[in-house]
Design brief:
heterodimer; A: 766 residues; Aldehyde Oxidoreductase, domain 4; 3 domains; 7-stranded mixed β-sheet; 19 helices; globular; B: alpha+beta; Ubiquitin-like (UB roll); DNA polymerase, domain 1; 2 domains; 5-stranded mixed β-sheet; 5 helices; 5 strands; binds FE2/S2 (inorganic) cluster; AldOxase/xan_DH_Mopterin-bd_sf (chain A); Ald_Oxase/Xan_DH_a/b (chain A); oxidoreductase activity (chain A)
Amino acid sequence: MLNYLEPLLETGIATVRLTKVTRRSFLGTAGAFALAAYAMPARAFDAYATGGLGMEHGLVEDPLIFVSIDPDGTVTLVAHRSEMGTGSRTSIPMVMADEMEADWTRVKIIQAPGDEPKYGNQDTDGSRSMRHHIQMARKIGGAVRTMLARAGAEEWGVDPAQVIVEMHEVKGPSGQSLGFGDLAAAAMAQPVPAHEEVAYKTEDQFRYIGKGEVQITDLHDITTGSAVYGADVILPGMKYAVIARPPVVGGKALSYDATEALKVPGVESVHELPYASMPTQFAPLGGIAVVARNTWAATQGRDQLKIEWDAGPNGGYSSEPYMAEMIATSEHPGTVARDQGDVEAALAGAVKTFTATYTQDHVAHIPMEPPAAIASYTAEGLEIWAPVQSPYTTRKDAAKAVGLDPEMVRVNVTLLGGGFGRKSKADYVAEAALLSKKVGAPVRVQWTREDDVKHSFYHTTSAERIDVALDESGAVTGWRHRSVAPSILSTFAPDEGNVLPLELAMGMTDLPFDLPNIRCEHGKALAHTRIGWFRSVSNIPHAWAIGSCVGELAHELGKDQRQMWLELIGAPRSLDLKAAGLPEDFWNYGEPIAEFPIETGRLADVLNIAADGIGYGKELPEGEGIGLAVHRSFVSYVACAARVKVADGRITVPEMHMAIDCGFAANPERIQSQMQGAAVMGMTVALHSGITFEGGAVMQSNYYDYDVVRSDNFPTVVTHIVPHPFSVHATGVGEPGVPPVSPAIANGLFAATGDRRRHLPMGVEA
Amino acid sequence: MTTITLNGVEQVFDEDPTMPLLWAIRDIAGLTGTKYGCGAGLCGACTVHVEGKAVRACQTSLRSVEGKAVTTIEGLDPEGNHPVQVAWRDLNVPQCGFCQPGQIMQAAAFLGETPKPTDAEILAAMSGNVCRCGCYQRIVEAVRHASTGI
Ligand code: FES
Ligand code: FES
């Protein structure tokens, strides 16, 4: 196997680097210093608080729920989080296996069904899997290792302290040795030890954790086509369905004629499904379903349906006037969400001001696997097989759809062919459940790509206006940011046009700049479609606006981008919420701020690492430029340095450096793959992803008008991971790579050509 | 009625001969390694080999492959150890994995025709295969890696 740390490209650049921080002197104040924590000796495991306990159904740390050992020594570990490509199905069990000294080659992983009272929270989003479960996994593994040692000690009549558990073997003081399988029954019958009774490994004893050498558990199945995704379960007697959904959310069919559809060979029946009105929550949109003997017949049948749609209350939604309205709203004072100092006085007294408005269209997730689900409704209950991020919510929603008690419903979680937030909202599962009940047979509902593009839960569209006050020396004295965007809340509750504080806390109100006067406001925007979360959520428009604005200020003030960022970020410190004009209970991705502070030094560090990595400041050929941006989200810090090149009238990004500080790096190999993925998705957001509406309906439909970055235009990414000991808490990885990418590309494009773009998507043309 | 040799075994399909090969493979033959991603020839998730050449199964009718040899990811190598599959594992290419059977089938056919490709040839050959997770860097590295083993 090639070592992923080796240089992989012909260019000879290592594509992942563990980059230690050497803090450059900050504006002449402090000298370079290494973080004290780096000098600390390897140590065992001091538990710390996370937001995991505050999640619905919290954390379950009972090893008997997650671990079983067969007499032949096979260790079976339960993965209770959904696998959508981040690696959590491998990484959490890997942590358990390491702490219990199991040999990874003898570990089997099984997927938990949706059952949060049993397994704890299963809501796989928010970049929480490792952040909330690394301690739980160590505790479970450590407990089982202790139980194995105690069982061995009893067997041999020795002190458990004299027993060593090593690589699937339990060893006594005088050469005794038993395998895990030999002691399985006795070990699992031991009382589960308390955290304090367990002698955890010190970090230098980790075998798998932090190494990045364990391959994802599904690797062989994926490469041979035997991995099972949502549409890959085949049940005896199963029917295949596709659905014609109302083009406008809240619309319905006034009438429909299925005569021709029913003539298509293979089509068996046509059913009208109940319609949803806003707030829809995760209920299906309704429509006319065609049930057939195979997917092709179902889609052919659907093409033959004649439907007269009533658009309903959202038929007037059109993106162009809506955007103009949002921009107009941003020109007036809104509701204040953060108020530090007196920004109005700073703006009124400024020698110079700078104002810009940054906008973004909606985005659809388009996971490679479009939504699909299989349901089997029988007298015994309802059984589901589906790719879902939140299987317990799915279970409750599916139960509600067919009028069953959730106890009568089982949700089996398949692999997800990508999720990105779309598959937290399992409207497609409820559709399958409804249809299975109607036809009295198992039903697979398949969404076509067009269905997926046209009926998503869209990332919000937004207008972000920033006004900056400057004094005579060119110093920034005030920063006023107004955000106008329809809220996710509108999907769950009657819409009043206001965003949630947590949407603003994603990269806007938590602005870590060292400025005397900061105000954040939001203006009203009513939603006319289903607004949902998309990988990194509101951080995208906020980082886009803030990062682009920093680039523009650098140009205005004749500074380089790095200098501008570092001046605004200021000296290394933890953001003082009170001084920043923020409430004590400020939303910090659900994490206690004392354990997960907002640290400006770490922000500056990743910026410097990315900038140094790409050689920021070096001479570049005509038509090339480097853009920088840095952003904290999901309690991690990520900087992006993008070398943008205009070639044949097209915007290309030949090279990108992603520097991440996610605390302790549990699985560097998957962190690297997430940074590579975030670079591509961020670039797709920057150049391509624009969902627009007319007459309430989505205008795009498939890759030809909603394209993505492809292999002829992807950035070569160098990933830098800041190494930390376990005591620097592991934080999010799946999402935080995305936000800094689009402003870095915009700043790079400006550096290359002088062309400043303020709307996402920017388009591919230079 | 359409007869094709699917992964070396002759198989008869009674379905509508205009049915795309993709759905015949998935729904009728029950081989689910070949994926649906767009149904329009735009993403490559459904890539299979017809007489050794990579085709988009969603754009290929059953009728058009009458009497021909069709290979899916399940039939690429009896042990699943085609050099491209091995390279994919060596370099830990997948994230969610959904696009990967199509990527592997595309790469395998391409390397069959162009055993020692240049980088530009690799990028062009693979550009019809979307990976929404963004594994392109590793995909390209894996094709290069496999090309030295074919
Ligand atoms: S499904 Fe055939 S190319 Fe996309
Ligand atoms: S690995 Fe997820 S789409 Fe390619």
